[in-house]
C-alpha cells in the first residue's frame, strides 16, 4: 500500500490526512505538538469562525493574494461542504453577521475534536514528532527525516505545517525551509491580519478605547491621495492601532514601516467640516459658558478628550463662547483627521496569518501537487495565499487539504 506522510496536524493537515486515508492509502500524520490543532482552539476568540457561508465568488473576493489559484480548491470543497462536513459529524453550526459560521456551542474544541475524530476513524496513524527535512531522491519524495534523525519512508508527503503566526501553537514556519531545501521558491513572508505600531506616544493613553463607525485613510506622509481607506471599527492599544479596520488594512498594505505612512482617523465620517462647524455652533449656543473640554464631551468619548485637547492646543478651560472661528475650524479639522504615523506591523506572535509562502506558480491548483518534486503536495497557510477575517483562512485550509488528500497518489508520480 502507498505510504503517505502528512506533516502538520492543523486543519489543513487533518483534513488532508483523513481524505487520503479514506481512499485506502496508509497515512501517518506527524505533529510536533502533544495535541493536534492547537491553533484551531484559539480561532474566533475560542469560538472558531469555521468558514464563511459565501458562494464561490464571495470566497474568491476575500482572498487578497492569488485568489485564482484557489478556484479549483474552493470548487472541490466549498463553504457549504465545510458546513455539511461538520454538521454530519455532530457539530451543529450557526451563521452570524457577515455570513460568519460558528459552532452552535461556541466551542472551537468541538471543531478540532470533529476533525481529529474524522482522521482517526479514516485510519490515520497519529505520531507526535517533528519533521526536520524532506528526503528526495532523483526528483521524487522518498521520505521524511525526523528531528531524531530517523527516516520515515514515504511514497508521498503532504506538507501542511502552517505559517509563522502564533508560533507558540507549533506553527514556527518549518515548512518554508523544508520546501525551499527541495527547490521550491518562497515569496517573502510577513505578519498579516495584524495590528500596526505608531510613532505617537499619546496613543498609549487611549489603550482599550474602541471606536465604531470611524473612517480611516492611510496615505504616504505629505500625499493627499490615500493608498487605502474604509469605514468601520478601530481599537487603540498601548503600542498602536488594532481592530477590524486595521487588520483589514494590514492584509492589503505591504510597505508599512518601510515608507512613512500616516493613518488619519475621521471621528465623524457622516459630517462634513461645514456640518461639524454648524454642530459646534449649536453646542456653543446651547451653553456658552461651558468649558472647551466639556463641549467636546458631546462629541467624543471621555477617554479621547485629554488627548484631543492636548493635540488641538486649545486650553481645556476656555469658555465655549470665547472660541474663535479659527479654533472651531481647528477642532473640526482634528475631528475629521486624528493622525498617527505607522511605524510597522506587530510581530508574528500577534498576527492571525502569515502573508507569503510557497509560490503558487510551482503548485498545481487542481491537485495541490508540487510541479518541482514528484510525490510532494501542499495544503493550508504554508502556501502563498491568505484571506481576510471572516472564516476565509480556515476555508482555505479545508479546501486545499481536501484537494491534497484526494489527489495525492492519483497521478503518475507515485507509481
Ligand atoms: C488567534 C487566531 C485566531 C484565528 N481565528 C480564525 C478564525 O476564526 N477563522 C479563520 O478562518 N481563521 C482564523 N485564524 C487563522 C487560521 O487559524 C489559520 O489560517 C489556520 O489554522 C491554518 O491552518 P494550517 O493547517 O495551514 O496551519 P496551522 O493551523 O498553523 O497548523 C500547522 C500545524 O503543523 C505543525 N507543525 C509545524 N511544523 C511542524 C514540523 N516540523 N513537524 C510536525 N508538525 C509541525 C504545527 O504544530 C501545527 O499544529 C486564526 C488564527 C489565529 C492565530
- Whole-number radius of gyration? 25 Å
Task: Supply the CATH class of the largest domain.
Answer: Alpha Beta
C-alpha termini separation:
11 Å
Estimate the global geometry from the Cα principal axes.
elongated
How much of the sequence lies in strands comes to: 15-25%
Ligands bound, unique:
flavin-adenine dinucleotide
Strand order of the largest sheet: 12-15-14-13-16-17
Number of helices: 13
| Estimated helix fraction | 25-40%
Largest sheet: 6 strands, antiparallel, barrel
Total domains: 2
Low-confidence stretches: none
Structural class: alpha+beta
**How many runs of DSSP E, i.e. beta strands?**
19
Average pLDDT over all residues: 96
Per CATH, the architecture of the largest domain is 3-Layer(bba) Sandwich
CATH homologous superfamily designation of the largest domain: FAD/NAD(P)-binding domain
What does this protein look like?
It is a single chain. The protein is of the alpha+beta class and 415 residues long. It has two domains: 3-192 and 351-414, 3-Layer(bba) Sandwich (FAD/NAD(P)-binding domain); 195-345, rRNA adenine dimethylase, C-terminal domain (Helicase, Ruva Protein, domain 3), CATH 1.10.8.100. The protein has 13 helices and 19 strands. It has helices at residues 11-22, 38-42, 56-61, 71-76, 79-88, 108-122, 174-181, 244-252, 273-286, 292-296, 305-312, 325-336, 392-407, and strands at 3-7, 26-31, 51-52, 93-96, 100-103, 125-128, 131-137, 140-146, 151-153, 156-159, 186-192, 196-198, 210-220, 228-236, 240-242, 261-266, 338-345, 353-358, 376-378. α1 packs parallel to α6 (108-122). The longest helix is centred in the last third of the chain and has 16 residues, at 392-407. It is elongated.
Amino acid at each position: 500500500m502507498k505510504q503517505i506522510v502528512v506533516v502538520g496536524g492543523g486543519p489543513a493537515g487533518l483534513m488532508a490526512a483523513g481524505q487520503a486515508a479514506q481512499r485506502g492509502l496508509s497515512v501517518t500524520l506527524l505533529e510536533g505538538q502533544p495535541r493536534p490543532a492547537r491553533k484551531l482552539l484559539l480561532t474566533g476568540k475560542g469560538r472558531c469562525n469555521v468558514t464563511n457561508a459565501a458562494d464561490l465568488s464571495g470566497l474568491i473576493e476575500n482572498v487578497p493574494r492569488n485568489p485564482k489559484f484557489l478556484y479549483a480548491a474552493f470548487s472541490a470543497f466549498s463553504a457549504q461542504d465545510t458546513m455539511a462536513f461538520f454538521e454530519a459529524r455532530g457539530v451543529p453550526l450557526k451563521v452570524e453577521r457577515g455570513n460568519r459560521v460558528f459552532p452552535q456551542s461556541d466551542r472551537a474544541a468541538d471543531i478540532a475534536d470533529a476533525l481529529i475524530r474524522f482522521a482517526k476513524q479514516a485510519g490515520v496513524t497519529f505520531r507526535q514528532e517533528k519533521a526536520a527535512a524532506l528526503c528526495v531522491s532523483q526528483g521524487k519524495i522518498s521520505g521524511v527525516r525526523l528531528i531524531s534523525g530517523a527516516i520515515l519512508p514515504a511514497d508521498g508527503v503532504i506538507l501542511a505545517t502552517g505559517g509563522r503566526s502564533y508560533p507558540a501553537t507549533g506553527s514556527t514556519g518549518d515548512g518554508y525551509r523544508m520546501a525551499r531545501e527541495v527547490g521550491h521558491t518562497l515569496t517573502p513572508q510577513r505578519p498579516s491580519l495584524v495590528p500596526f505600531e505608531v510613532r505617537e506616544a499619546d496613543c498609549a493613553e487611549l489603550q482599550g478605547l474602541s471606536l465604531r463607525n470611524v473612517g480611516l485613510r492611510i496615505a504616504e506622509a505629505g500625499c493627499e491621495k490615500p493608498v487605502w481607506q474604509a469605514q468601520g471599527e478601530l481599537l487603540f492599544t498601548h503600542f498602536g492601532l488594532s481592530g477590524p479596520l486595521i487588520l483589514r488594512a494590514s492584509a492589503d498594505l505591504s510597505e508599512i514601516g518601510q515608507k512613512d505612512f500616516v493613518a488619519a482617523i475621521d471621528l465623524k465620517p457622516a459630517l462634513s467640516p461645514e456640518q461639524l462647524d454648524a454642530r459646534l455652533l449649536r453646542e456653543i449656543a446651547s451653553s456658552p459658558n461651558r468649558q472647551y473640554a466639556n463641549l467636546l464631551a458631546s462629541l467624543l468619548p471621555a477617554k479621547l478628550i485629554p488627548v484631543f485637547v492636548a493635540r488641538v492646543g486649545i486650553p481645556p478651560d476656555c469658555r465655549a463662547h470665547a472660541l474663535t472661528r479659527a479654533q472651531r475650524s481647528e477642532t473640526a479639522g482634528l475631528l475629521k483627521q486624528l493622525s498617527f504615523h505607522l511605524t510597522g506591523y506587530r510581530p508574528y506572535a500577534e498576527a492571525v496569518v502569515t502573508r507569503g509562502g510557497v509560490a503558487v506558480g510551482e503548485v498545481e491548483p487542481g491537485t495541490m501537487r508540487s510541479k518541482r518534486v514528484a510525490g510532494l503536495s501542499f495544503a493550508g497557510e504554508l502556501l502563498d495565499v491568505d484571506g481576510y477575517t471572516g472564516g476565509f483562512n480556515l476555508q482555505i485550509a479545508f479546501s486545499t487539504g481536501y484537494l491534497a488528500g484526494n489527489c495525492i497518489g492519483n497521478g503518475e508520480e507515485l507509481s
